[in-house]
Design a protein that fits this description.
Layout (H helix, E strand, L loop, with lengths): L2 E8 L3 E8 L5 E4 L4 H10 L6 E3 L5 H4 L2 H8 L2 E5 L11 E3 L6 E2 L2 E7 L8 E5 L2 E5 L2 E2 L2 E2 L7 H12 L6 E4 L4 H11 L4 H15 L7 E2 H7 L5 H13 L5
Parallel strand pairs: 3-4, 4-5, 5-6, 10-13
Antiparallel strand pairs: 1-2, 2-3, 7-8, 8-9, 9-10, 11-12, 13-14
Helix pairs in contact: 1-3, 5-6
């Protein structure tokens, strides 16, 4: 694996992500919502940080940037379209750009929906998707449209099945509860629910997941579930 990745839990349910390029040892942290947990984590993993990567402008993803930047002298990359709403960027990104983490070239995808300027990044098989794609779910439409979010999700769904989905929050169990109202007989989804519950009981993250798992369980990536969802909405007044 050219890039390794570890979650950094912080705030109530956020994940930052710690990346390390295997060949050069260059490191990055994705979406530091607060500084101290990230600083402590980096110090516990070599004390070196080269990059801070931002997927979107929300405070729970960027409020720790200045503290982390000051602690390690890291540079910051994020969306060119959102530069006016992000901390000062050393590298502004748009879809098609190929930023490097050491020897690993990344790919940038514009993924509007949750926010207008949201981006996702792929380094090796590690997908940093912020609040666009979640484990068994997707982000809320706070600025974009449903059509934009659907297009963003379809873009990510075309990546290789072994891609690791590194999202911004621990929402898996609640997402599964919703997904089971859409596809109650989906055995892969039922199994994912049991797995996620067992992990949370011992305080372990349910992510990263894989794109293969998402294609098998996530209703927002499963076109066949859309008709079923419409049927449930039409037939059950209590559905929310």
């Amino acid at each position: 694996m050219p890039v390794s990745v570890l979650p950094i839990p912080h705030q109530s349910d956020n994940y930052a992500w710690f990346l390390k390029d295997a060949e050069t040892g260059q490191t990055a942290v994705v979406d530091p919502g607060e500084a101290q947990p990230i600083i402590d984590f980096v110090n516990g993993h070599g004390g070196k940080l080269d990059w801070i990567i931002l997927t979107h402008h929300h405070g729970d993803h960027i409020n720790g940037v200045e503290g982390v930047r000051a602690a390690f002298g890291a540079k910051v990359m994020g969306a060119r379209a959102d530069a006016h709403r992000l901390p000062a960027l050393d590298l502004a990104l748009s879809e098609g750009d190929t930023p490097a983490l050491g020897a690993t070239k990344g790919q940038v995808f514009d993924t509007p929906g949750h926010t207008r300027g949201h981006i996702a990044l792929l380094f090796g098989d590690v997908l940093l998707c912020g609040d666009t794609l979640f484990s068994v779910g997707c982000g809320r439409l706070l600025e974009g449209t449903a059509a934009e979010m659907f297009a963003s999700l379809q873009k990510l769904a075309k990546l290789p099945a072994e891609t690791l989905v590194c999202c911004g929050h621990e929402y898996t169990e609640s997402n599964i509860r919703f997904a089971l109202t859409v596809e109650p007989e989906n055995e892969a989804l039922q199994a994912r629910g049991r797995e996620a519950h067992a992990l949370r009981l011992i305080g372990e993250p349910t992510v990263p997941t894989t794109l293969a798992q998402e294609l098998a369980t996530n209703p927002f990536l499963r076109v066949s579930s859309v008709e079923r969802l419409a049927e449930i909405r039409a037939g059950k007044d209590s559905f929310r």
